[in-house]
Amino acid sequence: MTKIDLNLLIALNVLLEETSVVRAAKRLGLSQSAMSRSLARLRDMTGDPLLVRAGRTLIPSPRALDIQQEVSQLVCGAEAILRPSEMLDLSQLDRCFVIRVSDGFVETFGLKLIQKIKAEAKGVKIHFLPKLSKQSTQLREGQVDLDIGVLGAKTSPEVRMRALFSDEFVGVVSPDHPLANDKVTCANFAAADHVLVSKEGGLVGPVDKALEAMGYQRNIAVLTGGFSASIALVKGADLVASVPSKHTAKLREGLHTFQLPFDVPSIQVSMFWHPRMDGDQAHKWLRECVLAVCGDET
């Protein structure tokens, strides 16, 4: 039986995640030539190109796509087996966790989460990082410990996920806006000037799709990158913002909130982490804290 170099499994996992010899080499602390040799050996062993050049980039072959999740699970399982098992002593835990959060999370849940964490582990620090995209690169590279938001097409398939709560869209206006005193209908809602929240610049959101199904189109007057910015604009102008209810509870204080006069699908807010953290007892405790603070069952 041919002896297999299991280090190649680690190299394969990183190559498939990065789809770049240069980035893979950087993650593993190897030279680019050493990483290229590993890819060549993997190609020889599997009889498959694994990564194929397409212009200036590399794309995974069909077989690479088929085995990527299994390779990731094997590597993460090996890391968990070799990691020393220790009883978690929260009184001695000295660690900084980076949590990437969607707009409005800190204002609504941040204080309660910090209070719970400090009550159990005084040495733990929390760094809330703004969620500027749905890509999982920072989780994969260990720059972020926990990601909180909505599952999207750019979420990597290897990440772990735990649902936290479902959220319904509501409308919000200033107290002196006409919609604060009138019955809200599809017609007067669509006719008002609206703020659209779009992190990537798209002009159609779930509210627009629901309105279109009713035969209406709203007037988008302002485009912003986050819920807090949209609500700040509502406070000083005759604008309407459509925002997730739970996520923006604190941000909407002092404003008039109303139910939308049509059905919009709810969103599922979840926490995401990389599989390498599954066996980390401190990370597991952090996930339990987040779930206790903002999970639907609390």
Question: CA-to-CA gap between the ends?
Answer: 55 Å
Radius of gyration: 23 Å
Strand order of the largest sheet: 4-3-5-12-6
* Unreliable parts: none
Bulk shape:
globular
SS field, number of helical segments: 10
Biggest sheet statistics: 5 strands, mixed
Extended strand count = 12
Order of helices and strands: HHHEEHEHEHEEEHEHEHEEEH
* Structural classification: alpha/beta
The helical percent reads 25-40%
What is the average per-residue confidence, as pLDDT, rounded to a whole number?
88
Strand content: 15-25%
Description:
This protein has 298 residues and is an alpha/beta fold. It is built from 10 helices and 12 strands. The strands form 3 sheets. It has a 5-stranded mixed β-sheet, with helices on one face. A 5-stranded mixed β-sheet has the order 9-8-10-7-11. A hairpin with a 2-residue loop joins β1 (51-54) and β2. α1 (7-18) packs across α4. It is globular, with a radius of gyration of 23 Å. The N and C termini lie far apart (55 Å).
What is this structure's SSE topology?
Layout: H1 7-18, H2 21-28, H3 32-46, E1 51-54, E2 57-60, H4 62-82, E3 95-101, H5 105-120, E4 124-130, H6 137-140, E5 146-150, E6 160-167, E7 169-173, H7 186-191, E8 193-197, H8 206-213, E9 219-224, H9 227-236, E10 240-244, E11 256-259, E12 267-273, H10 281-294
Parallel strand pairs: 3-4, 3-5, 8-9, 8-10
Antiparallel strand pairs: 1-2, 5-12, 6-12, 7-10, 7-11
List keywords for this structure.
12 strands, five-stranded mixed sheet, 298 residues, single chain, 10 helices, alpha/beta
